[in-house]
Amino acid sequence: MKILFTGGGTGGHFYPIIAIAEEIKRICIEQKIVAPELYFMSDKPYNKRVLSDNNIKFVPTTAGKIRRYFSLMNFLDFFKIIFGSIKAIFTVFSIYPDVIFGKGGYASFPGLLAARVLRIPVVIHESDSHPGRVTLWASKFATRIAVSYPEAIKYFPPEKTAIVGNPIRRGILFPAKSGAHEFLDFDKNIPTIFVVGGSQGSIHINEVLLDILPQLLTDYQIIHQVGKKNYADLKKRADFLTKDNPNKNRYKIFDYLNDIAMRMTAGAANLVISRAGSAIFEIANWNIPAIIIPIPEEISHDQRTNAFTYARSGGAVVIEEKNLTPSILLSETKRILNDKELQAQMKAGAASFAKPEAGEKIAEEIIRLALEHEE
Fold this sequence. Notes:
The chain is an alpha/beta fold. It folds into two domains: 2-168 and 356-374, 3-Layer(aba) Sandwich (Rossmann fold), CATH 3.40.50.2000; 174-353, Rossmann fold. Helix content is 45%, strand content 15%. The protein has a seven-stranded parallel sheet with strand order 3-2-1-4-5-6-7, sandwiched between helices. Strand 2, helix 2 and strand 3 form a beta-alpha-beta unit. Helix 10 packs across helix 13. It is globular and about 65 Å long.
C-alpha cells in the first residue's frame, strides 16, 4: 500500500499531514495490515526530521504560486506551474500510489493534477471555513472531501463531503497536567498566558505584547513562542524591558516548542493568545480560553471567518488586528483571567468545538480507498 501526501509549505498544511500519517501507521499495526509506504510531495520538505521520524519519503516538486495581487512573480511562477506539473506526472507515475491525499496550497497542485491524469483516488482536506483555490478545483474529481468547519460544506458536493475537524498530532493532542509548572519553572498559583502567532510567529502580536509586558508580569506568567526569524531580536528587546523587573522570571520566550514543551505549555496555560489558523483546533482540544487575532482579510481571506466561527462556540473572543492595541489586549486579558465563571464557560465552549478524532477518521478513509485500489 502506497500513500502520497501533498500540501503547501506551512505548518498548517504540514502538521495535519503528519497527524494523519501517524494514524495510518497506528491503524495498520492494530488491524495487522502491511505497513504502508508513505511519501510527501511538495516544493520544500518543511521539517526533514519529522518526515524521517515518521518514515515518510520526501518527493520534491516544482510549484508556482498565483498571487491575488499584481506581481511580476506571477509571470515567472506560471512557468514553474507548467514545469512542475509535467514533472509531477512522471514522478507520481513512477511511485503509482494507491491514494493521494491533498492538504491544499499551491504546492499541492502538481501532485493533484498528476492524480487526475493517472486516475488515482484522491482525498482532500480543507482546514479553513473558506476553501482555497486548489482545494476547490480538486473537489471536482476528489473521491472524498473532509472539512474542518461547517461553513465550508456549501462549497463542496455534499454526497462526498464530511465535517471532521482538523487533524492534530497525538504528541500534542492532550495537555500534560502533571509536572507542567515544574517543567516551565512556573508558580502554580499564578495564571499563565501562552502567546503564539503561528509557525512563523506574528510580528504585530509580538510588538503589542512587548508594549504591555511589564504590566502583564505583575499578575501573570507568560510563555511566548515567537518564531525562529523573530527570536533573536525579540529576546534582546524583552531582556531590556525586564532587566530590572523583579518578575522577569515569569516570562519565557521560545523560537519553537517541541511536542513535549507544547504539551507542558498547554497543561500550564490559563489563556491562549493566537492567530486563527489550525492552532484553533489545538486550543479547542486543550479546552483553554483564548483570544484569537486573525490575520487581516486582505492578506488571508479565511482567518477572520475561522476566528468568528470559533468564537460562536463560546471558546474564544476575537480582536481584529486593526483594533489590536496594547490597552485592548491588556483589558481583554484581565477580563478573562479575573473571571472564573467566564473561564468555565469558555472551556465548555472549546470542548464543544473540539474534534480530537479528525486524524483517525481521515486515516480510516484513506486506508479503505487504498485497499480497494490495490485489489
